[in-house]
Protein backbone atom coordinates (compact mmCIF):
# COMPACT_ATOMS: atom_id res chain seq x y z
CA UNK A 1 0.00 0.00 0.00
CA UNK A 2 1.35 3.42 -0.94
CA UNK A 3 2.18 5.98 1.72
CA UNK A 4 -0.49 8.49 0.73
CA UNK A 5 -3.22 5.84 0.55
CA UNK A 6 -2.45 4.55 4.04
CA UNK A 7 -2.52 8.06 5.49
CA UNK A 8 -5.63 8.93 3.52
CA UNK A 9 -7.51 5.90 4.82
CA UNK A 10 -6.48 6.52 8.42
CA UNK A 11 -7.48 10.18 8.39
CA UNK A 12 -10.69 9.53 6.46
CA UNK A 13 -11.72 7.02 9.15
CA UNK A 14 -10.62 9.40 11.90
CA UNK A 15 -12.64 12.26 10.42
CA UNK A 16 -15.77 10.08 10.29
CA UNK A 17 -15.23 9.18 13.97
CA UNK A 18 -14.74 12.87 14.82
CA UNK A 19 -18.00 13.75 13.10
CA UNK A 20 -19.86 10.98 14.88
CA UNK A 21 -18.54 12.24 18.23
CA UNK A 22 -19.41 15.78 17.20
CA UNK A 23 -23.02 14.81 16.45
CA UNK A 24 -23.45 12.91 19.72
CA UNK A 25 -21.84 15.63 21.87
CA UNK A 26 -23.72 18.49 20.25
CA UNK A 27 -27.03 16.67 20.77
CA UNK A 28 -26.12 16.23 24.44
CA UNK A 29 -24.72 19.77 24.94
CA UNK A 30 -26.38 22.00 22.37
CA UNK A 31 -25.15 25.25 23.91
CA UNK A 32 -21.52 24.16 23.57
CA UNK A 33 -21.68 23.30 19.85
CA UNK A 34 -18.96 25.76 18.77
CA UNK A 35 -16.50 24.73 21.46
CA UNK A 36 -17.11 21.02 20.79
CA UNK A 37 -16.47 21.44 17.06
CA UNK A 38 -13.30 23.50 17.56
CA UNK A 39 -11.92 21.07 20.15
CA UNK A 40 -12.51 18.01 17.96
CA UNK A 41 -10.96 19.66 14.90
CA UNK A 42 -7.95 20.72 17.01
CA UNK A 43 -7.46 17.16 18.28
CA UNK A 44 -7.67 15.88 14.70
CA UNK A 45 -5.06 18.45 13.62
CA UNK A 46 -2.74 17.42 16.47
CA UNK A 47 -2.83 13.78 15.31
CA UNK A 48 -1.98 14.90 11.76
CA UNK A 49 0.85 17.10 13.09
CA UNK A 50 2.34 14.21 15.09
CA UNK A 51 2.30 11.86 12.09
CA UNK A 52 3.84 14.54 9.86
CA UNK A 53 6.50 15.19 12.50
CA UNK A 54 7.35 11.46 12.61
CA UNK A 55 7.57 11.39 8.79
CA UNK A 56 9.89 14.41 8.76
CA UNK A 57 12.23 12.95 11.39
CA UNK A 58 12.36 9.57 9.68
CA UNK A 59 13.07 11.12 6.28
CA UNK A 60 15.76 13.48 7.61
CA UNK A 61 17.55 10.63 9.37
CA UNK A 62 17.41 8.38 6.30
CA UNK A 63 18.58 11.18 3.94
CA UNK A 64 20.93 13.73 5.54
CA UNK A 65 21.24 15.49 2.16
CA UNK A 66 18.14 17.74 1.77
CA UNK A 67 18.27 17.37 -2.02
CA UNK A 68 17.73 13.61 -1.76
CA UNK A 69 14.75 13.62 0.60
CA UNK A 70 11.29 12.28 -0.21
CA UNK A 71 8.56 14.50 -1.60
CA UNK A 72 6.37 14.36 1.50
CA UNK A 73 4.38 17.41 0.39
CA UNK A 74 2.84 15.45 -2.48
CA UNK A 75 2.28 12.42 -0.25
CA UNK A 76 0.33 14.47 2.27
CA UNK A 77 -1.55 16.44 -0.37
CA UNK A 78 -2.87 13.23 -1.92
CA UNK A 79 -3.61 11.81 1.53
CA UNK A 80 -5.56 14.93 2.46
CA UNK A 81 -7.59 14.93 -0.76
CA UNK A 82 -8.39 11.24 -0.36
CA UNK A 83 -9.33 11.66 3.31
CA UNK A 84 -11.58 14.62 2.50
CA UNK A 85 -13.53 13.01 -0.32
CA UNK A 86 -13.86 9.58 1.31
CA UNK A 87 -14.81 10.91 4.75
CA UNK A 88 -17.37 13.25 3.20
CA UNK A 89 -18.92 10.40 1.19
CA UNK A 90 -18.96 8.00 4.16
CA UNK A 91 -20.42 10.66 6.48
CA UNK A 92 -23.17 11.37 3.94
CA UNK A 93 -24.00 7.66 3.69
CA UNK A 94 -24.11 7.33 7.49
CA UNK A 95 -26.27 10.45 7.67
CA UNK A 96 -28.93 8.71 5.57
CA UNK A 97 -29.54 6.30 8.47
CA UNK A 98 -28.22 8.14 11.54
CA UNK A 99 -30.02 11.46 11.80
CA UNK A 100 -27.92 12.78 14.71
CA UNK A 101 -24.93 13.21 12.37
CA UNK A 102 -24.70 16.72 10.97
CA UNK A 103 -24.19 16.34 7.22
CA UNK A 104 -25.06 18.39 4.17
CA UNK A 105 -25.89 17.28 0.64
CA UNK A 106 -23.61 14.86 -1.21
CA UNK A 107 -22.12 17.55 -3.48
CA UNK A 108 -21.23 19.77 -0.51
CA UNK A 109 -19.75 16.84 1.39
CA UNK A 110 -17.43 15.74 -1.43
CA UNK A 111 -16.42 19.29 -2.43
CA UNK A 112 -16.61 21.93 0.32
CA UNK A 113 -16.13 19.67 3.33
CA UNK A 114 -13.57 17.55 1.43
CA UNK A 115 -11.56 20.69 0.62
CA UNK A 116 -11.60 21.73 4.29
CA UNK A 117 -10.38 18.29 5.38
CA UNK A 118 -7.71 18.19 2.66
CA UNK A 119 -6.39 21.63 3.66
CA UNK A 120 -6.39 20.72 7.35
CA UNK A 121 -4.48 17.48 6.74
CA UNK A 122 -1.99 19.00 4.30
CA UNK A 123 -1.26 22.13 6.32
CA UNK A 124 -0.66 20.46 9.68
CA UNK A 125 1.23 17.53 8.15
CA UNK A 126 3.64 19.86 6.33
CA UNK A 127 4.18 21.86 9.53
CA UNK A 128 4.98 18.58 11.29
CA UNK A 129 7.32 17.43 8.50
CA UNK A 130 9.18 20.74 8.53
CA UNK A 131 9.51 20.67 12.31
CA UNK A 132 10.74 17.07 12.32
CA UNK A 133 13.35 17.72 9.63
CA UNK A 134 14.51 20.94 11.28
CA UNK A 135 15.06 19.27 14.65
CA UNK A 136 17.11 16.47 13.06
CA UNK A 137 19.15 18.91 10.92
CA UNK A 138 19.81 21.13 13.94
CA UNK A 139 21.46 18.26 15.82
CA UNK A 140 23.41 16.97 12.82
CA UNK A 141 26.90 18.50 12.50
CA UNK A 142 27.47 20.35 9.24
CA UNK A 143 29.76 18.49 6.87
CA UNK A 144 32.59 20.73 5.58
CA UNK A 145 32.37 21.32 1.86
CA UNK A 146 35.47 20.39 -0.09
CA UNK A 147 36.67 23.00 -2.56
CA UNK A 148 40.14 21.93 -3.73
CA UNK A 149 40.64 18.43 -4.98
CA UNK A 150 36.92 17.70 -5.23
CA UNK A 151 37.50 15.23 -8.02
CA UNK A 152 34.32 13.23 -7.60
CA UNK A 153 32.23 16.18 -8.86
CA UNK A 154 34.67 17.61 -11.36
CA UNK A 155 32.67 16.34 -14.32
CA UNK A 156 29.49 18.10 -13.13
CA UNK A 157 31.07 21.27 -11.74
CA UNK A 158 30.09 24.00 -14.20
CA UNK A 159 32.42 26.55 -12.64
CA UNK A 160 35.48 24.28 -12.83
CA UNK A 161 35.78 24.95 -16.55
CA UNK A 162 35.54 28.72 -15.99
CA UNK A 163 38.22 28.58 -13.30
CA UNK A 164 40.48 26.56 -15.61
CA UNK A 165 40.00 29.10 -18.41
CA UNK A 166 40.82 32.00 -16.12
CA UNK A 167 43.98 30.24 -14.94
CA UNK A 168 44.98 29.79 -18.56
CA UNK A 169 44.42 33.49 -19.30
CA UNK A 170 46.57 34.48 -16.31
CA UNK A 171 49.34 32.14 -17.42
CA UNK A 172 49.17 33.61 -20.94
CA UNK A 173 49.30 37.17 -19.54
CA UNK A 174 52.34 36.30 -17.43
CA UNK A 175 54.10 34.76 -20.42
CA UNK A 176 53.29 37.76 -22.62
CA UNK A 177 54.59 40.15 -19.97
CA UNK A 178 57.80 38.20 -19.72
CA UNK A 179 58.19 38.29 -23.51
CA UNK A 180 57.67 42.08 -23.61
CA UNK A 181 60.11 42.77 -20.79
CA UNK A 182 62.81 40.41 -21.99
CA UNK A 183 64.02 42.51 -25.02
CA UNK A 184 64.10 45.65 -22.87
CA UNK A 185 66.20 43.91 -20.27
CA UNK A 186 68.55 42.70 -22.99
CA UNK A 187 68.83 46.22 -24.50
CA UNK A 188 69.61 47.75 -21.10
CA UNK A 189 72.20 45.07 -20.51
CA UNK A 190 73.86 45.83 -23.93
CA UNK A 191 73.85 49.58 -23.18
CA UNK A 192 75.50 49.02 -19.81
CA UNK A 193 78.13 46.73 -21.44
CA UNK A 194 79.01 49.42 -24.02
CA UNK A 195 79.45 52.06 -21.33
CA UNK A 196 81.73 49.89 -19.27
CA UNK A 197 83.90 49.11 -22.27
TrEMBL record:
Keywords: Membrane, Transmembrane, Transmembrane helix
InterPro entries per the UniProt record, alphabetical: B-4DMT-like
UniProt region (Disordered), positions on chain: 166-197
The organism's place on the tree of life at top rank: Bacteria
Extent of Basic and acidic residues compositional bias: 187-197
TM segment ranges: 33-54, 75-98, 110-136
NCBIfam families assigned: B-4DMT (NF037996)
Name of the protein in question: Transmembrane protein
